[in-house]
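hi!! sorry for the late reply, been swamped w classes. u asked for the two structures so here they r. pasted raw, havent cleaned anything up. first the sequence of the first protein and right below it the C-alpha coordinates
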Amino acid sequence: MLLAVNRANAGNADVPDSKGLSDVMAALERRSGGRLGVAMLDTGSGRRFDWRGDEMFPMCSTFKFLLAAAILKRVDEGRESLTRRIPVSPGDLIPYAPFAETRVNGTPPTVAELCEATMTLSDNVAANLLLPAVGDPAGLTAFVRSLGDERTRLDRNEPTLNSSIPGDPRDTTTPNAMVHSMNRLMVGDALRPSSREQLIDWMVGNKTGDKRLRAGLPRDWRVGDKTGTGNGSINDIGIAWPGARPPILIASYITQTPEGFKQGDAIHADVARAATGAFTG
Protein backbone atom coordinates (compact mmCIF):
# COMPACT_ATOMS: atom_id res chain seq x y z
CA MET A 1 0.00 0.00 0.00
CA LEU A 2 2.86 2.38 0.77
CA LEU A 3 4.08 2.11 -2.82
CA ALA A 4 0.66 3.06 -4.12
CA VAL A 5 0.33 6.04 -1.80
CA ASN A 6 3.75 7.31 -2.76
CA ARG A 7 3.02 6.85 -6.46
CA ALA A 8 -0.31 8.60 -6.18
CA ASN A 9 1.19 11.59 -4.42
CA ALA A 10 4.25 11.90 -6.64
CA GLY A 11 3.75 14.32 -9.50
CA ASN A 12 0.22 15.21 -8.46
CA ALA A 13 0.88 18.32 -6.40
CA ASP A 14 -1.31 20.35 -8.77
CA VAL A 15 -4.41 18.31 -7.85
CA PRO A 16 -6.27 19.90 -4.94
CA ASP A 17 -6.20 17.66 -1.84
CA SER A 18 -4.17 14.88 -3.44
CA LYS A 19 -3.74 13.23 -0.04
CA GLY A 20 -7.50 13.22 0.48
CA LEU A 21 -8.01 11.67 -2.95
CA SER A 22 -5.44 9.00 -2.14
CA ASP A 23 -7.31 8.22 1.07
CA VAL A 24 -10.52 7.78 -0.93
CA MET A 25 -8.80 5.39 -3.35
CA ALA A 26 -7.32 3.37 -0.48
CA ALA A 27 -10.77 2.98 1.05
CA LEU A 28 -12.29 1.95 -2.29
CA GLU A 29 -9.52 -0.58 -2.82
CA ARG A 30 -10.20 -2.12 0.59
CA ARG A 31 -13.87 -2.43 -0.38
CA SER A 32 -12.88 -4.25 -3.56
CA GLY A 33 -10.92 -6.95 -1.78
CA GLY A 34 -8.46 -6.77 -4.68
CA ARG A 35 -6.40 -4.13 -6.48
CA LEU A 36 -7.73 -0.80 -7.73
CA GLY A 37 -5.93 1.23 -10.39
CA VAL A 38 -7.04 4.71 -11.38
CA ALA A 39 -5.75 7.53 -13.57
CA MET A 40 -7.51 10.86 -14.04
CA LEU A 41 -6.63 13.76 -16.33
CA ASP A 42 -8.25 17.17 -16.62
CA THR A 43 -7.38 17.86 -20.25
CA GLY A 44 -8.08 21.57 -19.87
CA SER A 45 -5.74 22.33 -16.98
CA GLY A 46 -3.38 19.37 -17.31
CA ARG A 47 -3.97 18.42 -13.68
CA ARG A 48 -3.79 14.70 -13.08
CA PHE A 49 -3.99 12.06 -10.41
CA ASP A 50 -3.26 8.36 -10.28
CA TRP A 51 -3.51 5.46 -7.87
CA ARG A 52 -1.41 2.46 -8.83
CA GLY A 53 -1.24 4.26 -12.14
CA ASP A 54 1.78 2.40 -13.47
CA GLU A 55 0.73 -1.05 -12.32
CA MET A 56 -0.49 -3.70 -14.74
CA PHE A 57 -4.21 -4.53 -15.01
CA PRO A 58 -6.13 -6.87 -17.35
CA MET A 59 -7.90 -4.81 -20.02
CA CYS A 60 -10.80 -7.19 -20.68
CA SER A 61 -13.19 -5.40 -23.08
CA THR A 62 -11.68 -1.95 -22.60
CA PHE A 63 -9.33 -3.01 -25.40
CA LYS A 64 -12.27 -2.53 -27.76
CA PHE A 65 -11.88 1.24 -27.49
CA LEU A 66 -8.36 0.90 -28.88
CA LEU A 67 -9.55 -1.53 -31.56
CA ALA A 68 -12.18 0.89 -32.86
CA ALA A 69 -9.60 3.68 -32.83
CA ALA A 70 -7.15 1.53 -34.80
CA ILE A 71 -9.83 0.88 -37.42
CA LEU A 72 -10.51 4.62 -37.71
CA LYS A 73 -6.79 5.30 -38.07
CA ARG A 74 -6.68 2.93 -41.02
CA VAL A 75 -9.70 4.72 -42.50
CA ASP A 76 -7.81 8.01 -42.14
CA GLU A 77 -4.87 6.47 -43.99
CA GLY A 78 -7.03 5.12 -46.82
CA ARG A 79 -6.34 1.49 -45.83
CA GLU A 80 -9.86 0.69 -44.60
CA SER A 81 -13.44 1.61 -45.43
CA LEU A 82 -16.26 1.83 -42.91
CA THR A 83 -18.60 0.57 -45.63
CA ARG A 84 -16.66 -2.67 -46.27
CA ARG A 85 -18.72 -5.72 -45.32
CA ILE A 86 -17.45 -8.66 -43.28
CA PRO A 87 -19.55 -11.85 -43.24
CA VAL A 88 -20.52 -13.61 -40.01
CA SER A 89 -20.51 -17.41 -40.08
CA PRO A 90 -21.76 -19.89 -37.46
CA GLY A 91 -18.15 -20.78 -36.68
CA ASP A 92 -17.49 -17.21 -35.57
CA LEU A 93 -19.99 -17.35 -32.73
CA ILE A 94 -18.80 -17.25 -29.11
CA PRO A 95 -20.65 -16.17 -25.96
CA TYR A 96 -22.05 -12.65 -25.94
CA ALA A 97 -22.69 -11.54 -29.50
CA PRO A 98 -26.02 -9.66 -29.34
CA PHE A 99 -25.44 -7.98 -32.71
CA ALA A 100 -23.31 -10.46 -34.62
CA GLU A 101 -25.61 -13.41 -33.93
CA THR A 102 -28.38 -11.59 -35.82
CA ARG A 103 -26.24 -11.50 -38.97
CA VAL A 104 -25.10 -15.13 -39.18
CA ASN A 105 -25.40 -16.19 -42.83
CA GLY A 106 -27.38 -13.01 -43.44
CA THR A 107 -26.48 -9.57 -44.78
CA PRO A 108 -22.83 -9.06 -43.84
CA PRO A 109 -22.38 -6.13 -41.46
CA THR A 110 -20.24 -3.17 -42.41
CA VAL A 111 -17.04 -2.31 -40.61
CA ALA A 112 -18.89 0.69 -39.14
CA GLU A 113 -21.66 -1.56 -37.81
CA LEU A 114 -19.13 -3.92 -36.28
CA CYS A 115 -17.29 -1.02 -34.63
CA GLU A 116 -20.53 0.32 -33.20
CA ALA A 117 -21.50 -3.11 -31.86
CA THR A 118 -18.03 -3.56 -30.41
CA MET A 119 -18.13 -0.20 -28.65
CA THR A 120 -21.77 0.19 -27.60
CA LEU A 121 -22.74 -3.44 -26.92
CA SER A 122 -19.28 -4.94 -26.27
CA ASP A 123 -20.09 -7.62 -28.85
CA ASN A 124 -17.27 -10.18 -28.68
CA VAL A 125 -17.74 -11.62 -32.16
CA ALA A 126 -17.76 -8.14 -33.70
CA ALA A 127 -14.42 -7.44 -32.02
CA ASN A 128 -12.92 -10.73 -33.22
CA LEU A 129 -14.06 -10.01 -36.79
CA LEU A 130 -12.39 -6.59 -36.69
CA LEU A 131 -9.05 -7.67 -35.21
CA PRO A 132 -7.62 -9.11 -38.47
CA ALA A 133 -8.22 -5.72 -40.11
CA VAL A 134 -5.67 -4.11 -37.79
CA GLY A 135 -3.13 -6.94 -37.91
CA ASP A 136 -4.56 -9.10 -35.12
CA PRO A 137 -3.43 -8.58 -31.50
CA ALA A 138 0.16 -7.80 -32.52
CA GLY A 139 -1.07 -5.14 -34.92
CA LEU A 140 -3.19 -3.51 -32.24
CA THR A 141 -0.20 -3.48 -29.90
CA ALA A 142 1.86 -1.80 -32.63
CA PHE A 143 -0.88 0.80 -33.01
CA VAL A 144 -0.78 1.78 -29.34
CA ARG A 145 3.02 1.96 -29.51
CA SER A 146 2.61 4.51 -32.31
CA LEU A 147 0.64 6.63 -29.82
CA GLY A 148 3.55 6.64 -27.38
CA ASP A 149 1.96 4.03 -25.11
CA GLU A 150 4.74 1.61 -24.17
CA ARG A 151 2.78 -0.50 -21.69
CA THR A 152 -0.52 -1.60 -23.23
CA ARG A 153 -0.44 -4.92 -25.07
CA LEU A 154 -2.96 -7.26 -26.65
CA ASP A 155 -1.98 -10.90 -27.07
CA ARG A 156 -5.22 -12.81 -27.63
CA ASN A 157 -8.75 -12.36 -28.88
CA GLU A 158 -12.14 -12.94 -27.26
CA PRO A 159 -12.82 -14.69 -24.97
CA THR A 160 -9.38 -15.88 -23.82
CA LEU A 161 -8.04 -12.35 -23.33
CA ASN A 162 -10.27 -12.10 -20.23
CA SER A 163 -8.38 -14.72 -18.19
CA SER A 164 -7.14 -12.06 -15.71
CA ILE A 165 -4.44 -14.29 -14.22
CA PRO A 166 -2.53 -12.38 -11.50
CA GLY A 167 0.93 -11.43 -12.72
CA ASP A 168 0.22 -12.42 -16.34
CA PRO A 169 1.34 -9.54 -18.61
CA ARG A 170 -0.83 -10.65 -21.54
CA ASP A 171 -3.69 -8.38 -22.58
CA THR A 172 -2.89 -5.73 -19.98
CA THR A 173 -2.55 -1.98 -19.65
CA THR A 174 -1.80 0.50 -16.89
CA PRO A 175 -4.24 3.25 -15.91
CA ASN A 176 -1.73 5.93 -16.89
CA ALA A 177 -1.02 4.28 -20.24
CA MET A 178 -4.71 4.01 -21.07
CA VAL A 179 -5.37 7.65 -20.18
CA HIS A 180 -2.39 8.63 -22.35
CA SER A 181 -3.88 6.79 -25.34
CA MET A 182 -7.37 8.14 -24.64
CA ASN A 183 -5.95 11.66 -24.60
CA ARG A 184 -4.14 11.15 -27.90
CA LEU A 185 -7.20 9.64 -29.56
CA MET A 186 -10.10 11.73 -28.23
CA VAL A 187 -8.46 15.07 -27.43
CA GLY A 188 -5.24 15.13 -29.42
CA ASP A 189 -4.58 14.79 -33.13
CA ALA A 190 -3.84 11.07 -33.48
CA LEU A 191 -7.02 10.80 -35.56
CA ARG A 192 -8.52 13.15 -38.11
CA PRO A 193 -11.32 15.32 -36.66
CA SER A 194 -14.10 13.28 -38.29
CA SER A 195 -12.68 10.01 -36.97
CA ARG A 196 -12.09 11.50 -33.54
CA GLU A 197 -15.72 12.58 -33.35
CA GLN A 198 -16.89 9.17 -34.54
CA LEU A 199 -14.86 7.46 -31.81
CA ILE A 200 -16.32 9.82 -29.20
CA ASP A 201 -19.85 9.21 -30.50
CA TRP A 202 -19.38 5.46 -30.07
CA MET A 203 -18.12 6.03 -26.51
CA VAL A 204 -21.09 8.26 -25.67
CA GLY A 205 -23.46 5.70 -27.18
CA ASN A 206 -22.25 2.84 -24.98
CA LYS A 207 -25.08 0.89 -23.34
CA THR A 208 -23.10 -1.28 -20.90
CA GLY A 209 -21.76 1.26 -18.39
CA ASP A 210 -24.73 3.03 -16.83
CA LYS A 211 -23.90 1.73 -13.33
CA ARG A 212 -20.14 2.35 -13.43
CA LEU A 213 -18.35 5.68 -14.01
CA ARG A 214 -21.47 7.26 -15.52
CA ALA A 215 -23.41 6.68 -12.30
CA GLY A 216 -21.00 8.88 -10.35
CA LEU A 217 -20.94 11.83 -12.74
CA PRO A 218 -23.39 14.76 -12.87
CA ARG A 219 -26.43 13.99 -15.01
CA ASP A 220 -26.01 17.15 -17.08
CA TRP A 221 -22.49 16.20 -18.23
CA ARG A 222 -21.91 14.56 -21.59
CA VAL A 223 -20.28 11.20 -20.82
CA GLY A 224 -18.83 8.30 -22.79
CA ASP A 225 -17.31 5.07 -21.52
CA LYS A 226 -16.16 1.55 -22.36
CA THR A 227 -16.50 -1.24 -19.85
CA GLY A 228 -14.60 -4.49 -19.42
CA THR A 229 -15.31 -7.49 -17.19
CA GLY A 230 -13.87 -10.95 -16.70
CA ASN A 231 -12.68 -13.42 -14.06
CA GLY A 232 -12.48 -11.06 -11.10
CA SER A 233 -11.71 -7.93 -13.13
CA ILE A 234 -14.23 -5.09 -13.41
CA ASN A 235 -13.15 -2.07 -15.49
CA ASP A 236 -14.38 1.16 -17.00
CA ILE A 237 -12.69 3.95 -18.95
CA GLY A 238 -14.50 7.20 -19.56
CA ILE A 239 -14.54 10.71 -20.96
CA ALA A 240 -16.73 13.42 -19.42
CA TRP A 241 -17.38 17.04 -20.31
CA PRO A 242 -18.13 19.39 -17.37
CA GLY A 243 -20.39 21.77 -19.28
CA ALA A 244 -18.42 23.79 -21.84
CA ARG A 245 -15.06 22.88 -20.32
CA PRO A 246 -12.56 20.48 -21.91
CA PRO A 247 -13.13 16.86 -20.94
CA ILE A 248 -11.90 14.85 -17.98
CA LEU A 249 -10.49 11.39 -18.74
CA ILE A 250 -10.74 8.52 -16.25
CA ALA A 251 -9.36 4.98 -16.40
CA SER A 252 -10.57 2.80 -13.53
CA TYR A 253 -9.49 -0.83 -13.19
CA ILE A 254 -10.30 -3.39 -10.49
CA THR A 255 -8.81 -6.88 -10.45
CA GLN A 256 -8.25 -9.89 -8.18
CA THR A 257 -11.62 -9.45 -6.49
CA PRO A 258 -13.01 -12.29 -4.36
CA GLU A 259 -15.43 -14.79 -5.88
CA GLY A 260 -18.97 -13.47 -5.92
CA PHE A 261 -17.90 -9.83 -5.55
CA LYS A 262 -20.80 -7.54 -6.50
CA GLN A 263 -19.62 -4.01 -5.63
CA GLY A 264 -17.48 -3.26 -8.69
CA ASP A 265 -20.02 -1.00 -10.36
CA ALA A 266 -20.48 1.06 -7.19
CA ILE A 267 -16.73 1.45 -6.71
CA HIS A 268 -16.33 2.81 -10.23
CA ALA A 269 -19.17 5.25 -9.57
CA ASP A 270 -17.37 6.42 -6.43
CA VAL A 271 -14.14 6.86 -8.41
CA ALA A 272 -16.05 9.15 -10.77
CA ARG A 273 -17.54 11.11 -7.86
CA ALA A 274 -14.04 11.61 -6.49
CA ALA A 275 -12.85 12.85 -9.88
CA THR A 276 -15.73 15.31 -10.04
CA GLY A 277 -14.83 16.69 -6.64
CA ALA A 278 -11.11 16.85 -7.39
CA PHE A 279 -11.31 18.64 -10.71
CA THR A 280 -14.44 20.76 -10.45
CA GLY A 281 -14.93 21.27 -6.71
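now the second protein. again sequence first, C-alpha coordinates right under
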Amino acid sequence: MKRVHFIGIGGSGLSAIAFLLKESGYEVTGSDQTPSQFALDLQNQGVTVYIGHHPRNIGNAEMVIMSSAVKADNPEVEAAKKAGIPVYKRSDFLGQLMEKKTGIAVAGTHGKTTTTGMIAWMLSAMKRDPSFIVGSTLNNLKVNAHAGEGDVFVIEADEYDNMFLGLKPQIAVVTNLEHDHPDFFPKFEDMYSAFQKFVDLLPEDGTLIACAEDEGAVSLLSHARRKGLNVLSYSVQGEMTINSPQWLQARTVKPNTRGGFDFSAMTNLDLSATMNVSLQVPGEHNVRNALAALSVAAMLGLPLDQAANALSEFTGT
Protein backbone atom coordinates (compact mmCIF):
# COMPACT_ATOMS: atom_id res chain seq x y z
CA MET A 1 0.00 0.00 0.00
CA LYS A 2 1.41 3.39 -1.01
CA ARG A 3 1.41 6.20 1.56
CA VAL A 4 0.52 9.63 0.18
CA HIS A 5 0.95 12.82 2.21
CA PHE A 6 -1.03 16.00 1.45
CA ILE A 7 0.25 19.46 2.37
CA GLY A 8 -2.74 21.79 2.73
CA ILE A 9 -5.22 18.95 3.13
CA GLY A 10 -7.94 21.10 4.71
CA GLY A 11 -9.16 22.76 1.50
CA SER A 12 -12.00 21.43 -0.64
CA GLY A 13 -9.77 20.55 -3.59
CA LEU A 14 -7.01 18.64 -1.84
CA SER A 15 -9.31 16.98 0.68
CA ALA A 16 -11.35 15.55 -2.20
CA ILE A 17 -8.28 13.91 -3.73
CA ALA A 18 -7.28 12.59 -0.31
CA PHE A 19 -10.73 11.06 0.16
CA LEU A 20 -10.61 9.50 -3.30
CA LEU A 21 -7.19 7.92 -2.68
CA LYS A 22 -8.30 6.68 0.75
CA GLU A 23 -11.25 4.98 -0.93
CA SER A 24 -8.86 3.46 -3.45
CA GLY A 25 -6.87 1.77 -0.68
CA TYR A 26 -3.97 4.20 -0.19
CA GLU A 27 -2.64 5.13 3.24
CA VAL A 28 -3.30 8.86 3.48
CA THR A 29 -1.91 11.52 5.82
CA GLY A 30 -1.97 15.28 5.61
CA SER A 31 -1.30 18.59 7.28
CA ASP A 32 -2.70 22.10 7.35
CA GLN A 33 -2.21 25.29 9.30
CA THR A 34 -5.69 25.30 10.83
CA PRO A 35 -8.49 22.76 11.40
CA SER A 36 -11.37 22.59 8.91
CA GLN A 37 -14.56 20.62 8.38
CA PHE A 38 -13.00 18.90 5.36
CA ALA A 39 -10.06 17.80 7.52
CA LEU A 40 -12.40 16.60 10.26
CA ASP A 41 -14.37 14.55 7.74
CA LEU A 42 -11.13 12.92 6.59
CA GLN A 43 -10.14 12.15 10.18
CA ASN A 44 -13.49 10.41 10.60
CA GLN A 45 -12.48 8.24 7.63
CA GLY A 46 -9.24 7.22 9.32
CA VAL A 47 -6.92 9.81 7.77
CA THR A 48 -4.20 11.22 10.06
CA VAL A 49 -4.28 15.03 9.88
CA TYR A 50 -1.53 17.13 11.48
CA ILE A 51 -2.22 20.74 12.43
CA GLY A 52 0.85 22.79 11.54
CA HIS A 53 3.64 22.03 9.09
CA HIS A 54 6.75 20.15 10.23
CA PRO A 55 9.31 18.01 8.37
CA ARG A 56 8.50 15.00 10.58
CA ASN A 57 4.95 14.93 9.17
CA ILE A 58 6.34 13.55 5.90
CA GLY A 59 7.38 10.33 7.64
CA ASN A 60 7.66 7.42 5.20
CA ALA A 61 5.47 8.94 2.49
CA GLU A 62 6.14 7.69 -1.04
CA MET A 63 4.42 10.65 -2.70
CA VAL A 64 3.52 14.20 -1.66
CA ILE A 65 0.73 16.32 -3.13
CA MET A 66 0.68 20.02 -2.30
CA SER A 67 -1.98 22.70 -2.47
CA SER A 68 -1.39 25.62 -4.83
CA ALA A 69 -1.50 27.85 -1.73
CA VAL A 70 1.57 26.10 -0.28
CA LYS A 71 4.91 27.80 -0.98
CA ALA A 72 8.05 26.06 -2.21
CA ASP A 73 9.86 26.90 1.04
CA ASN A 74 7.28 25.05 3.15
CA PRO A 75 9.26 22.84 5.58
CA GLU A 76 7.38 19.72 4.49
CA VAL A 77 7.97 20.43 0.80
CA GLU A 78 11.67 20.97 1.48
CA ALA A 79 11.87 17.77 3.56
CA ALA A 80 10.18 15.72 0.85
CA LYS A 81 12.48 17.01 -1.88
CA LYS A 82 15.54 16.45 0.29
CA ALA A 83 14.41 12.84 0.82
CA GLY A 84 13.87 12.35 -2.92
CA ILE A 85 10.10 11.93 -2.54
CA PRO A 86 8.10 13.02 -5.63
CA VAL A 87 6.15 16.23 -4.98
CA TYR A 88 3.16 17.03 -7.19
CA LYS A 89 0.90 20.03 -7.48
CA ARG A 90 -2.79 19.20 -7.31
CA SER A 91 -3.48 19.88 -11.00
CA ASP A 92 -0.60 17.69 -12.20
CA PHE A 93 -1.74 14.75 -10.10
CA LEU A 94 -5.35 15.13 -11.23
CA GLY A 95 -4.19 14.79 -14.83
CA GLN A 96 -2.64 11.44 -13.96
CA LEU A 97 -5.90 10.25 -12.40
CA MET A 98 -8.01 11.37 -15.36
CA GLU A 99 -5.97 9.81 -18.14
CA LYS A 100 -7.01 6.31 -17.06
CA LYS A 101 -10.72 7.05 -17.63
CA THR A 102 -13.02 9.13 -19.82
CA GLY A 103 -12.43 12.53 -18.25
CA ILE A 104 -15.19 15.12 -18.03
CA ALA A 105 -13.99 18.53 -16.82
CA VAL A 106 -16.51 21.26 -15.98
CA ALA A 107 -15.29 24.87 -16.10
CA GLY A 108 -16.86 28.31 -16.05
CA THR A 109 -17.18 31.42 -13.91
CA HIS A 110 -20.57 30.45 -12.49
CA GLY A 111 -22.35 27.13 -12.06
CA LYS A 112 -19.44 24.72 -12.33
CA THR A 113 -19.87 23.23 -8.85
CA THR A 114 -23.58 22.55 -9.32
CA THR A 115 -23.11 21.29 -12.88
CA THR A 116 -20.30 18.94 -11.82
CA GLY A 117 -22.50 17.72 -8.98
CA MET A 118 -25.41 17.15 -11.35
CA ILE A 119 -23.26 15.09 -13.71
CA ALA A 120 -21.76 13.05 -10.86
CA TRP A 121 -25.20 12.35 -9.37
CA MET A 122 -26.77 11.62 -12.78
CA LEU A 123 -24.11 9.01 -13.61
CA SER A 124 -24.31 7.54 -10.10
CA ALA A 125 -28.10 7.24 -10.28
CA MET A 126 -27.74 5.54 -13.68
CA LYS A 127 -25.45 2.92 -12.09
CA ARG A 128 -22.32 4.07 -13.95
CA ASP A 129 -20.37 4.41 -10.65
CA PRO A 130 -18.23 7.37 -11.79
CA SER A 131 -15.17 8.71 -10.06
CA PHE A 132 -15.70 12.37 -9.25
CA ILE A 133 -14.30 15.40 -7.46
CA VAL A 134 -16.68 18.28 -6.74
CA GLY A 135 -15.95 21.52 -4.90
CA SER A 136 -18.80 20.96 -2.46
CA THR A 137 -20.56 18.00 -0.84
CA LEU A 138 -23.38 16.46 -2.88
CA ASN A 139 -26.56 16.33 -0.82
CA ASN A 140 -27.67 13.12 -2.56
CA LEU A 141 -24.42 11.24 -1.95
CA LYS A 142 -23.10 12.97 1.21
CA VAL A 143 -19.55 13.19 -0.23
CA ASN A 144 -17.62 15.53 -2.54
CA ALA A 145 -15.41 12.81 -4.04
CA HIS A 146 -15.58 9.13 -4.92
CA ALA A 147 -13.30 6.53 -6.48
CA GLY A 148 -15.73 4.66 -8.72
CA GLU A 149 -15.36 1.41 -10.62
CA GLY A 150 -16.88 2.95 -13.76
CA ASP A 151 -15.00 4.29 -16.76
CA VAL A 152 -15.86 7.99 -16.26
CA PHE A 153 -14.06 10.60 -14.14
CA VAL A 154 -15.95 13.86 -13.51
CA ILE A 155 -14.13 16.85 -12.08
CA GLU A 156 -14.77 20.50 -11.33
CA ALA A 157 -12.13 22.41 -13.29
CA ASP A 158 -10.83 25.49 -11.46
CA GLU A 159 -9.32 28.21 -13.64
CA TYR A 160 -7.60 30.04 -10.77
CA ASP A 161 -3.81 29.74 -10.97
CA ASN A 162 -4.41 27.88 -14.26
CA MET A 163 -5.07 24.73 -12.24
CA PHE A 164 -7.37 23.32 -14.93
CA LEU A 165 -4.51 23.28 -17.44
CA GLY A 166 -3.08 20.16 -15.77
CA LEU A 167 -6.21 18.13 -16.55
CA LYS A 168 -6.67 15.60 -19.34
CA PRO A 169 -10.35 15.68 -20.32
CA GLN A 170 -12.08 13.87 -23.16
CA ILE A 171 -15.13 16.10 -22.71
CA ALA A 172 -14.87 19.73 -21.57
CA VAL A 173 -17.92 21.67 -20.36
CA VAL A 174 -17.91 25.49 -20.18
CA THR A 175 -20.92 27.07 -18.49
CA ASN A 176 -20.04 30.75 -19.01
CA LEU A 177 -17.19 33.27 -18.90
CA GLU A 178 -17.15 36.45 -16.85
CA HIS A 179 -14.05 38.30 -15.66
CA ASP A 180 -13.05 36.85 -12.30
CA HIS A 181 -9.92 36.50 -10.12
CA PRO A 182 -8.41 39.88 -11.14
CA ASP A 183 -5.43 39.14 -8.89
CA PHE A 184 -4.46 36.36 -11.31
CA PHE A 185 -6.23 37.48 -14.51
CA PRO A 186 -5.81 41.30 -14.64
CA LYS A 187 -7.96 41.50 -17.79
CA PHE A 188 -10.79 39.42 -19.23
CA GLU A 189 -8.55 38.66 -22.19
CA ASP A 190 -6.08 36.95 -19.85
CA MET A 191 -8.80 34.71 -18.48
CA TYR A 192 -10.20 33.98 -21.94
CA SER A 193 -6.74 32.97 -23.12
CA ALA A 194 -6.54 30.46 -20.25
CA PHE A 195 -9.91 29.01 -21.25
CA GLN A 196 -8.70 28.67 -24.85
CA LYS A 197 -5.74 26.68 -23.57
CA PHE A 198 -8.18 24.56 -21.54
CA VAL A 199 -10.12 23.75 -24.72
CA ASP A 200 -6.83 23.00 -26.46
CA LEU A 201 -6.24 20.19 -23.94
CA LEU A 202 -8.93 18.15 -25.69
CA PRO A 203 -7.66 15.35 -27.95
CA GLU A 204 -8.55 15.28 -31.65
CA ASP A 205 -11.67 13.22 -30.92
CA GLY A 206 -12.58 15.32 -27.86
CA THR A 207 -15.78 17.29 -27.34
CA LEU A 208 -16.51 20.80 -26.10
CA ILE A 209 -19.95 21.34 -24.57
CA ALA A 210 -20.79 25.00 -23.94
CA CYS A 211 -23.71 27.35 -23.34
CA ALA A 212 -24.90 29.00 -26.54
CA GLU A 213 -26.31 31.95 -24.59
CA ASP A 214 -22.97 33.17 -23.24
CA GLU A 215 -20.73 35.30 -25.46
CA GLY A 216 -17.48 33.94 -24.06
CA ALA A 217 -18.64 30.33 -24.28
CA VAL A 218 -19.81 30.91 -27.85
CA SER A 219 -16.35 32.22 -28.76
CA LEU A 220 -14.84 29.03 -27.34
CA LEU A 221 -17.26 26.92 -29.39
CA SER A 222 -16.07 28.75 -32.51
CA HIS A 223 -12.45 28.22 -31.46
CA ALA A 224 -13.09 24.50 -30.97
CA ARG A 225 -14.80 24.18 -34.36
CA ARG A 226 -11.85 25.85 -36.08
CA LYS A 227 -9.62 23.22 -34.49
CA GLY A 228 -11.86 20.46 -35.83
CA LEU A 229 -13.11 19.37 -32.42
CA ASN A 230 -16.55 17.94 -31.79
CA VAL A 231 -18.88 20.57 -30.29
CA LEU A 232 -22.33 20.57 -28.71
CA SER A 233 -24.15 23.70 -27.58
CA TYR A 234 -27.00 23.93 -25.09
CA SER A 235 -29.52 26.70 -24.49
CA VAL A 236 -33.06 27.62 -23.57
CA GLN A 237 -35.19 27.84 -26.73
CA GLY A 238 -35.11 31.28 -28.29
CA GLU A 239 -31.87 32.30 -26.57
CA MET A 240 -29.43 30.56 -28.90
CA THR A 241 -26.68 32.74 -30.36
CA ILE A 242 -24.80 30.20 -32.48
CA ASN A 243 -25.75 27.72 -35.17
CA SER A 244 -24.05 24.65 -33.76
CA PRO A 245 -24.04 21.38 -35.73
CA GLN A 246 -25.08 19.61 -32.52
CA TRP A 247 -27.42 21.17 -30.00
CA LEU A 248 -29.63 20.48 -26.99
CA GLN A 249 -32.43 22.89 -26.07
CA ALA A 250 -34.87 23.39 -23.20
CA ARG A 251 -38.48 24.13 -24.03
CA THR A 252 -41.61 25.00 -22.02
CA VAL A 253 -39.66 26.18 -18.96
CA LYS A 254 -42.00 26.94 -16.06
CA PRO A 255 -41.87 27.07 -12.24
CA ASN A 256 -42.95 23.93 -10.40
CA THR A 257 -44.14 23.10 -6.88
CA ARG A 258 -40.80 21.48 -5.93
CA GLY A 259 -38.96 24.79 -5.65
CA GLY A 260 -37.38 24.60 -9.09
CA PHE A 261 -38.41 24.58 -12.74
CA ASP A 262 -39.98 22.00 -15.03
CA PHE A 263 -38.81 21.80 -18.62
CA SER A 264 -38.70 19.48 -21.57
CA ALA A 265 -35.64 19.23 -23.78
CA MET A 266 -34.75 17.99 -27.21
CA THR A 267 -31.55 17.39 -29.15
CA ASN A 268 -30.75 16.85 -32.79
CA LEU A 269 -28.52 13.97 -31.70
CA ASP A 270 -31.71 11.97 -31.06
CA LEU A 271 -34.91 13.70 -32.09
CA SER A 272 -36.97 10.83 -30.68
CA ALA A 273 -35.53 11.23 -27.18
CA THR A 274 -37.90 12.33 -24.41
CA MET A 275 -36.37 14.50 -21.71
CA ASN A 276 -38.78 15.83 -19.09
CA VAL A 277 -37.04 17.32 -16.07
CA SER A 278 -38.60 18.55 -12.81
CA LEU A 279 -35.81 20.27 -10.89
CA GLN A 280 -35.77 20.53 -7.10
CA VAL A 281 -32.94 23.10 -7.02
CA PRO A 282 -34.09 26.73 -7.32
CA GLY A 283 -33.29 29.27 -10.00
CA GLU A 284 -33.70 29.31 -13.76
CA HIS A 285 -29.90 29.21 -14.07
CA ASN A 286 -30.12 25.60 -12.92
CA VAL A 287 -32.12 24.79 -16.04
CA ARG A 288 -28.96 25.61 -17.99
CA ASN A 289 -26.79 23.60 -15.59
CA ALA A 290 -29.11 20.63 -16.09
CA LEU A 291 -28.90 21.09 -19.87
CA ALA A 292 -25.12 20.83 -19.59
CA ALA A 293 -25.50 17.56 -17.68
CA LEU A 294 -27.97 16.22 -20.26
CA SER A 295 -25.50 17.19 -22.98
CA VAL A 296 -22.84 15.05 -21.29
CA ALA A 297 -25.30 12.14 -21.16
CA ALA A 298 -26.00 12.61 -24.87
CA MET A 299 -22.30 12.58 -25.76
CA LEU A 300 -21.77 9.43 -23.67
CA GLY A 301 -24.64 7.73 -25.51
CA LEU A 302 -26.71 7.23 -22.35
CA PRO A 303 -30.53 6.89 -22.27
CA LEU A 304 -31.67 10.50 -22.09
CA ASP A 305 -34.99 9.75 -20.42
CA GLN A 306 -33.13 8.08 -17.55
CA ALA A 307 -30.71 11.01 -17.36
CA ALA A 308 -33.66 13.42 -17.11
CA ASN A 309 -35.23 11.33 -14.34
CA ALA A 310 -31.96 11.31 -12.40
CA LEU A 311 -31.60 15.10 -12.62
CA SER A 312 -35.15 15.47 -11.30
CA GLU A 313 -33.94 13.82 -8.08
CA PHE A 314 -30.85 16.03 -7.67
CA THR A 315 -31.05 18.01 -4.43
CA GLY A 316 -28.01 20.26 -4.76
CA THR A 317 -24.62 20.73 -3.12
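hope this helps!! also noticed smth abt the second:
DSSP finds nine helices and 15 strands in the chain.
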